[in-house]
């Protein structure tokens, strides 16, 4: 595990230890991203609410998540991702709740999930999808958390960066795999990572999402040619003067 991921995960362990187990009334039915993807004729876009990050520091710290979510939906996003980690990304569960109350598209809770209690909380604050990072979890834990999220009807994006992580992810036979183009050891971002992994694993029976470092229509075309069906875009949209126009340009034909 990279040093930053190890540091974030050890903070999460402390956070989780302080959380109590709660009875959750499962009255809300999560909105499916997979179903939406079945009918997609263009690249699907996951627009992210990302105030800050370990690699970039403050990105758009004072953003109004409601206004940003409205712009994303106007531009045609298929999912909104909300970073809820406070220590490293300056996000919050309140951001997640605000976005969920603003939009009808599925909402992804982007956090560092290591325990069922975080999944209970994600559901309670409105998440339809969660992220499971292969590098941060052993095989038994990922499988357990994957099934637990599924018991709520939530979908999981199983995130990988390397070939070894891809092999581990595929054992789960997940519907969605996110390929992170950011190397968390160096913070270097290179979208060629998606191309390299999909040249070997592109035929797998799963939907691939390319994550991080997507900026231009040309990037979207490269990812489409590589076999990605969706893009997760954070910083580019958070810094854009006109996020709607950027989203439109990234929705290239499949
Ligand atoms: O972004 C970081 O610096 C980072 C550091 C450590 C762990 C995760 C990190 N990012 C989370 C993400 O996966 C990105 O927010 C997401 O893929 C969007 O990336 P980008 O479009 O490059 O902002």
Give a concise summary:
This protein is of the alpha/beta class and 254 residues long. 41% of the residues lie in helices and 17% in strands.
Give a structural overview.
- InterPro entries: Aldolase_TIM, Indole-3-glycerol_P_synth, Indole-3-glycerol_P_synth_dom, Indole-3-GlycerolPSynthase_CS, RibuloseP-bd_barrel.
- Its EC number is 4.1.1.48.
- With 254 residues, this protein is of the alpha/beta class.
- The protein contains 11 helices and 10 strands.
- It has one domain (3-16, 28-250): Aldolase class I (TIM Barrel), CATH 3.20.20.
- Helix 9 (217-226) links the parallel strand 9 (207-211) and strand 10 (230-233).
- The chain is globular.
- The model has no long low-confidence stretch (mean pLDDT 97).
- The ligand O=C(O)c1ccccc1NCC(=O)[C@H](O)[C@H](O)COP(=O)(O)O is lined by residues 4, 48, 50, 53-55, 180, 182, 184, 189, 211-214, 232-236.
Outline the secondary-structure elements:
Blueprint: H1 3-17, H2 33-38, E1 44-49, E2 52-53, E3 57-58, H3 65-75, E4 79-83, H4 93-102, E5 107-110, H5 116-124, E6 129-133, H6 139-151, E7 155-160, H7 163-170, E8 176-180, H8 192-201, E9 207-211, H9 217-226, E10 230-233, H10 235-239, H11 243-250
Parallel strand pairs: 1-4, 1-10, 4-5, 5-6, 6-7, 7-8, 8-9, 9-10
Antiparallel strand pairs: 2-3
Helix pairs in contact: 3-4, 3-11
Bound molecules: the ligand O=C(O)c1ccccc1NCC(=O)[C@H](O)[C@H](O)COP(=O)(O)O.
